[in-house]
Design brief:
Layout lengths: L3 H12 L5 H16 L3 H6 L8 H15 L4 H5 L1 E4 L2 E4 L9 H12 L8 E5 L5 H9 L5 E6 L4 H16 L4 E4 L2 H7 L7 E6 L14 H4 L4 H4 L8 H12 L2 E10 L5 H12 L4 E7 L5 E8 L4
Parallel strand pairs: 3-4, 3-6, 4-5, 6-7
Antiparallel strand pairs: 1-2, 7-9, 8-9
Length: 300
C-alpha cells in the first residue's frame, strides 16, 4: 500500500466483511482525508497514483486494523459531527446519534426555546446536547451538564473547552449522579427553563439485535437501562421536575425507547401529577415514537 489506489483497494478488502461496499469506499475516503489533511474536493482532484508517505501508510494501516476489529469509525478518527459541530469522541463515551440531532432540531424550532436562559443536560456523555444548545440558543446564561461516568466526563470537558474558545460560551460540567442528586433535594434558585436528556434506554434483552460495533465497543452505562425498570431514568427526570428544578412554564425534552414510549409518558405524568404537566410524544424521521416534550404548568 503506497498509493491512494492501492490503499482504497486494501480498505475495500478489509472492510467489506463489516460494511457494504459503498460504505467501505466512503470510509476509505474519510480516512484519506483525515491522514492527508485535505477536503473531499482536494482528495478527488488527486491522482489515484499519488504516493502516500511512510508515515501516512503506517497511520492508515493502524486505522484499518482497528476498523477491521469492529472499532467504530468515530473512535478511530477521534471525532464525530453533531448538529454541525465537530466533537471529540473516544472509547468510553457514546457516539452521538442522528436521532439526537433530531431532538436538537425539535428544541430549537420550539418557540419558547429561544428565550431559555438556564438549561440542564442530564447524562451529557460527549456533551453533544449541551454543546449544541448552548451554541445555538441566544439567551442562555447558565448551562449545566450532568455526567456520572469518569470516562465520559473528560471528553465532555474537552468539548466544552472547545466551545468556550470558539464562541465564548460556557457549559459547566457537573460530575454527579442523577439518583444521588434526587436524594439531596436541592433545586436551584431560580429554577431552570429547560431540561434535556438522552438517558440510557435500551433494555438488555434488545442487545442481541445490536451490531458488534456498538455492543462490543460503546459504553454499556450509556446504552442500557436497568433491566428491572427500563424507564427508571425517566421517572427520575420527572422527580427533578416535581422537586422544583424546572420553573412553571419550563420545558423538558427527552429521547426515549419507542417500545416504552407510552409507559414512559404515563409514569412521568403520574410522578409529576397529570394536572401539573402537558406532554406530547413525537415521532422521529423513521416514523418511530422517539421523543417526549413536557411542559410544566403547576399553576393550571
Amino acid at each position: 500500500m503506497d498509493t491512494i489506489r492501492s490503499f482504497e483497494q486494501q480498505a475495500l478488502e478489509c472492510l467489506t466483511a463489516l460494511y457494504e461496499p459503498s460504505e467501505a469506499r466512503e470510509i476509505a475516503r474519510q480516512l484519506l482525508e483525515e491522514v492527508r489533511g485535505c477536503t473531499r474536493t482536494q482528495l478527488l482532484l488527486l491522482s489515484k497514483d499519488t504516493l502516500l508517505s511512510p508515515a501516512e501508510c503506517a497511520r492508515l494501516e493502524r486505522m484499518l486494523h482497528d476498523l477491521s476489529a469492529g472499532t467504530p469509525l468515530q473512535y478511530v478518527l477521534g471525532y464525530a459531527y453533531f448538529a454541525g459541530h465537530r466533537l471529540t469522541v473516544a472509547p468510553g463515551v457514546l457516539i452521538p446519534r442522528p436521532e439526537t440531532e433530531e431532538l436538537i432540531e425539535l428544541i430549537l424550532q420550539h418557540p419558547e426555546s429561544r428565550a431559555s436562559q438556564r438549561l440542564l443536560d442530564v447524562g451529557t456523555g460527549s456533551g453533544c446536547i449541551a454543546y449544541a444548545l448552548t451554541a445555538a440558543l441566544p439567551e442562555v446564561k447558565q448551562s449545566v451538564a450532568l455526567e456520572v461516568s469518569s470516562e465520559a466526563a473528560p471528553i465532555a470537558e474537552a468539548n466544552f473547552e472547545a466551545l468556550r474558545k470558539a464562541t465564548g460560551r460556557e457549559v459547566y460540567l457537573w460530575k454527579h449522579d442523577l439518583f444521588a442528586l434526587l436524594e439531596e433535594h436541592t433545586p436551584p434558585t431560580p429554577p431552570l427553563d429547560l431540561i434535556v436528556s438522552n438517558p440510557p434506554y435500551i433494555h438488555p434483552e434488545e442487545a442481541e439485535e445490536m451490531t458488534p460495533q456498538v455492543l462490543l465497543h460503546e459504553p454499556h452505562l450509556a446504552l442500557f437501562a436497568p433491566e428491572a425498570s427500563p424507564i427508571a431514568y425517566y421517572i427520575a427526570l420527572a422527580e427533578l421536575v416535581a422537586q422544583g428544578y424546572l420553573r412553571s412554564g419550563g420545558n423538558l425534552w427527552v429521547e426515549l425507547n419507542p417500545l416504552y414510549a407510552t409507559a414512559t409518558e404515563e409514569a412521568m405524568l403520574e410522578r409529576i401529577r397529570r394536572r401539573h404537566a402537558k406532554t406530547k410524544l413525537i415521532h422521529d424521521l423513521s416514523g418511530k415514537v422517539r421523543f417526549l416534550h413536557l411542559t410544566y404548568c403547576p399553576a393550571e
